[in-house]
Amino acid sequence: MTIRFLLLVNKQGQTRLASYNEMVPLDERRQIEGEIVRKCLARADTQCSFVEHRNYKVIYRRYASLFFIVGVDAEENELAIFEFIHCVVETLDRHFGNVCELDIMFHLDKAHYILDEMVMNGAVVETNKAIILQLATQYVRSGEEAN
């Protein structure tokens, strides 16, 4: 499973979190994000959540005011990524208590840490929410001790 990028975007198209698993120049990131976000936000709720863009297959889901957008290789299984997005949302929900845009904005480091525990070098390495949250709690505690 090769996840190229994961984006969390609000309904206005503002990127709240971007995680890339490959080197992409900053200008190209902005261009790709803009194109993909416009494409996903313009689609109706009744349309399929899988889109092809350039050399990526883009899978997205909307939860409340946030769009979770994942770019993968063309040969990836869309439904597996769709389930992965749901697992990410459930994990963030458990950590933040019903995750919202403000949680991501004010605790960006924690959100990145949780994603880093789930995905490494584009491969999903952990989906057990209890393990991920245990590691995230340890991370939060170590950060508090440093302060």
Automatic annotation (TrEMBL):
This is AP complex subunit sigma. The keyword Transferase does not apply. Pfam families: Clat_adaptor_s (PF01217). Residues 2-134 form the AP complex mu/sigma subunit domain. Its main location: membrane. The keyword Protein transport applies. GO terms for biological process: intracellular protein transport. InterPro entries: AP_complex_ssu (IPR016635), AP_mu_sigma_su (IPR022775), Longin-like_dom_sf (IPR011012). Belongs to the adaptor complexes small subunit family. GO terms for cellular component: cytoplasm; endomembrane system. Keywords: Membrane, Protein transport, Transport. It is found in: Endomembrane system. It comes from Mantoniella antarctica.
